[in-house]
Amino acid sequence: MLIFWEWRVERYEPFFRLKNLKEGTTSHGDRIQDGKNSSRYLKIGTKLSGFCGTAIIHHTRRLTQGSHSSVIKMAVTSDETDIHVTLKGTGLRGNLNKVVLAYSGGLDTSVIVPWLRENYGCDVVCFTADVGQGIQELEGLEAKAKSSGASQLVVRDLKEEFVKDFIFPCLRAGAIYERKYLLGTSMARPVIAKAMVEVAKEVGADAVSHGCTGKGNDQVRFELTFFALNPQLHVVAPWREWDIKGREDAIEYAKKHNVTVPVTKKSIYSRDRNLWHLSHEGDILEDPANEPSKNMYMMSTDPEDAPNKPEYIEVGIVAGLPVSVNGEKLSPATLLARLNEFGGRHGIGRIDMVENRLVGMKSRGVYETPGGTILFAATRELETLTLDRESMQAKDALALKYAELVYAGRWFDPLRESMDAFMEKISENTTGSVVLKLYKGSVNVAGLKSEKSLYRQDISSFETGDIYDQADAKGFIRLYGLPTRVRAMLERGL
Length: 494
Fold this sequence. Notes:
Pfam families: Arginosuc_syn_C, Arginosuc_synth. By secondary structure, the chain is of the alpha+beta class. The protein has 4 domains: 1-90, no CATH class; 98-266, Rossmann fold; 271-387 and 430-449, Argininosuccinate synthetase, chain A, domain 2 (Alpha-Beta Complex), CATH 3.90.1260.10; 464-491, no CATH class. The protein is 33% helix and 21% strand. The chain has 13 helices and 21 strands. A 5-stranded parallel sheet has the order 10-9-8-11-12, sandwiched between helices. Helix 1 (107-120) crosses helix 6 and helix 7 (332-345) packs across helix 8 (370-386). It starts with a strand and ends with a helix. The relative contact order is 0.10. Residues 1-88 have low confidence and may be disordered.
């Protein structure tokens, strides 16, 4: 009879003697229990911290199987046999039970799976979020994850939640980071991290992990979300711990651990894609003096090659949030996808910028945000009808701080949530429709309508009206300009 057994060990002896273990035996707690007589047990070696699962007993006639984690293997050939113990699951850096890993199927996350098992002796559950990155990036992921050593892959379609609960609030707030960046990656990370916390609870994980480098913003965005939603979860960030320095090291590690990694040609650019945008970094973009290559772009046509005839579209907005395109009501994700088609066709939404990363360095990135650029133009222009001067100025001032919080990963910060309540209130009358003209990289407003409009033609007309008496302007100007007059009089000794 051959027995394979699994558990975690705090202190152990490499050899011990096991007597009178019968066929059908299973494990419970820190003892061996006979399936026929639950009172019979043997203590093994020194004190154990508890089994991770039950025994797997191979016999010519019977098989009794327990659970997971191949840690200790024992072979029994007679009633009294010396047994060799090989530890494979106790972590080199610590011990965790189960880790939920943000997984893409690329080289980095493929090697993180065996690295976690080796260094933390844990079960690894891979998690992939569909935030609109494209079906091609989701194909074959389960097989890849399991071949790397993961116990399972969990995939969640987060597109509607991403647009409705993360993108649209930023759009309503008018949040733009450093004058240009429409926060595509910044908004995606908290929705992914939020789902990871939920999955960790479902599968009973005590830790979460990501493949973000120690130089970027994303590590902060993931981890602040983890902290906010479940501060008891352990966080493992391999790039801040391991000895792997680059692609070649990762490939070598994969070979040593029999992990099949993607053999496709590596892109010269670092890209992040979701339903809102596509970012490009690296290679020639690292020198701000270099113009981006024409063949780099993927979501949008070069404006020079865009149609020579402009296209008009109408966006319907209710309380600061888009609800329809050309009169057709659409779900948030479907609406954004539709506008990506319009904007991409006309080369709209290309941004080239040098930004200040949260960690202190400057970096250059090129972003494609076709549908988002259209939506920002539509909501901003409709506000010219529905917001008074003081409200617009207050909203614009808060929008800067709102964007800064989102960029810094503070989505679940009470300040951002409080500001969101302000944005919702101040936008409640921003309802109407905007006609936009799309042409060779530009988006211009061709018409505005709102039942909540503060614009009155009978007031603004140059013709004399009953509401506005032009003669009133004289007294207003004298009072409004009084500080200016007093200062001038002082300077002249009057």
